[in-house]
Amino acid sequence: MKKVYFKTFGCRTNLYDSQVMMNSMQEYTVTEDESEADIIVVNSCTVTNGADSHVRSYISHVENSGGAKIFLTGCGAHTKGENLLKQGRVSGVFGQSEKIKIDDMLSREEPFYEPGDLNHIDESVVDDFIGKSRAFIKIQEGCSFRCSYCIIPHVRGDARSMNEDKILEQIQRLARNGFGEFILTGTNVGSYGQKTGSSIASLMKKMSCIRGVRRIRLGSVEPIQITDEFKEILDEPWLERHLHIALQHTSPQMLKLMNRRNVYKQDR
Questions:
Q1: Distance separating alpha carbons of residues 23 and 126, to the nearest angstrom
Q2: Contact in structure between 218 and 243 (CB atoms under 8 Å)
Q3: What is the pLDDT of residues 147-162, one digit of tens each?
Q4: pLDDT at position 208
Q5: E strands, 45-90, where?
Q6: 206-232 mean pLDDT
Q7: Where is average pLDDT lowest: 84-98, 102-116, 210-224, 245-259?
Q8: What's the CA gap between 104 and 27, in Å, rounded?
Q9: Is the pLDDT score of 118 beyond 70?
Q10: pLDDT of 177-193, one tens digit each?
Q11: How many angstroms separate the CA atoms of 167 and 115, rounded?
Q12: What is the sign of the dihedral through the CA atoms of 182, 186, 190 and 191?
């Protein structure tokens, strides 16, 4: 079998997506040694100019190191994928919604560009995390905020939540496989459940009741997403004693220019 190396840039959501691809492969084998790879999948980030630069630099490094075929996925597939394909620097480009078709993507002989569907809802269930001691759980995708400086809604789509039963099934499987610490990830995790009648706090309460779950960590949340229900779980022993709250700025004028939804006086 040909060996595939996954190079993941950016956020925890990308780490999860890379794991989905690894678990979905049937006709290839994963290697953690870049030097022995026949194929390299670059799961890219495009949230800043620096992130774009790091991805391009890595592709140059691979080009100068040997003959591995390069495939590009992740957020950068939407912003720089076509140009890299036209330049002949990658063999194929595919969006996040296509990741479970990884075998098909990697087997194609002709160059291709398939950005995928930005309304896609992930139904993948992961029961192992290769090379990790903690499990990353994607609970939602996309963001419906439209901050003036942010490209993410254009490369991840609007906010949509994963199926709660699928999330809990995944937690149960991972707990049975020895994982006790879970990190909830997504583009805007605090928006979980807004269109399904649930909430991030409600989901975490249900997760905490699953046998084997010892600790739950949460990614970044917005100030307006810290509800009374959310505050009620802050003293729970299973919740990690750390929150990243995206204040962004303290100037009302700057927050308005940034098209932020929070107000500093309320945040305090």
A1: 7
A2: yes
A3: 888 888 888 889 999 9
A4: 96
A5: 69-74
A6: 92
A7: 245-259
A8: 9
A9: yes
A10: 999 999 999 989 999 99
A11: 25
A12: negative
Task: Read off the pLDDT band of 264 (50, 70, 90).
Answer: low
Q: Where are the beta strands (DSSP E) in the chain?
A: 2-8, 28-30, 39-44, 69-74, 92-94, 112-114, 135-138, 140-141, 160-161, 181-185, 215-218
Angle at 248 between CA 233 and CA 235, to 5 degrees: 15
CA-nearest of 107, 89, 75, 93 to 8 is 75
Q: Around Cβ 53, how many Cβ atoms within 10 Å?
A: 10
> pLDDT tens digit string along 129-144?
877 788 889 999 989 8
- Buried/exposed code over 104-113 (b: 16+ C-beta within 10 A; e: otherwise): ebbeeeeeeb
The amino acid sitting at 188 is N
Q: Measure the CA–CA gap between 201 and 265, rounded to whole angstroms.
A: 24
Helix (H, G, I), strand (E, B) or coil at 268: coil
What is the rounded average pLDDT of the residues 159-180? 93
Domains, the chain, ordered by start:
2-114 (3.40.50.12160), 135-267 (3.80.30.20)
For residue 264, how far is the Cα from the chain centroid? 28
Asked if 73 and 92 count as a contact pair (C-beta separation under 8 A), the reply is no
CA distance 19 to 87: 28
With a CB cutoff of 8 Å and minimum separation 6, the contacts of 104 are: none
The β-bridge partners of 181 are 215
Tokens of residue 53, six digits: 């630069």
